[in-house]
Predict the structure.
Amino acid sequence: MEKTVYKLSADVVFAYNIFSADTQRNLNFSVTADICRDSFSDAVAAFKAYVGNVAYSAIVLSIPELVKKRVEGVLSISYGCEQEGYSDADTDTVCIDSERIHYSWEAHHDAISESNRMATNIKWDTDGKEVNLPNQMTIPDDVDDDVDAIGDYLSDETGFCHFGFDLVYEATIKVNREDTRVIHNLLSGKDLDWDADETHSVNAKFHNGTNVDVMLCCPPETHANYPNGSPWTQACWYDADGHSIGCSVTDDKFFGDWTMTDDDDPALGGPVSYVVHVVMEQEWTEADNVYLVDVGVIVDKDKYHACYSDVYDKQHGYYDEDRYLLRDLEKAKAEAKQYVIDGVENTYAIVTNQGPLDIDGIEVDDACVSYDAENVVYSAVKKNGEVVESFVGL
């Protein structure tokens, strides 16, 4: 198919507030590009992604000091293509920082958070005496966040002076089961229907006003336009005034421990560490797992579309006749084996562990289940009239 060059344009307006002056200002600019694609819809998708990148760069260059502090506003973009008679407009409330544009479709999930402070590595002044003193102590909430107040508390509680200590702020964020499922499905690849730049986050606030956002971030394009992309996770810390004080490296896990050290905390005049534990409010157990029963007939993968062989071990074509979900593993295995027994030559049945999944009212489709060979817990195929088990991967 011959590609067509489409001439597209966009008018961009970013309306933002100068809080110190309590006034609103507008940043205006235009973007044009010639996009070569097979179809006009592909060209529009590519152009919108391009405009988003240009808009971010233009805003950073125009108001760099505000971006460093995170600036909020309304981003309005009008798109047009005269040759196709096309026009469209997007308006979003956004927050822009030194990393990227955060769009209004970001989902913040309410979560239970608990926090405390711990003085660690306390260097006690015992005047050479052998005294059994703690190496770390929990600091009560009514003690101020400064080195003198915390130091006085340590001395008042023990009767000993000290030469210094380290301070660790610790928080635990508990994510409910429904939000856990959303996050799990995006990271595992079961849910590929994300929006461009879609994010999911949970937040904790420490005693000194510092905040941490633990985020799951989706690629800047949808899966349909960027099939090789996958979501990632990151944690970012902000001081009491909303200024960024550190971000973790990107990762592929959401639950677990996230840590950061501020090497020069102004209140303590030295390093302060932050630790946040992100956990499930209720841990998943084996009883929460759901099993996909996939049954059909083995076919020649070279004679059928690749979608039939791009699953499991990719050694066969799996022409599915039925798929359904069960919570009972033994029942799933039994029904799978019986299907093969009752079937014709080359009938197969495969059971895979889909992990925790809410199956109430769900219809099985490729967007909600996975076909990874590593998750196969049972497989069988009929060969020469006999049932051959554990055939996947052979």
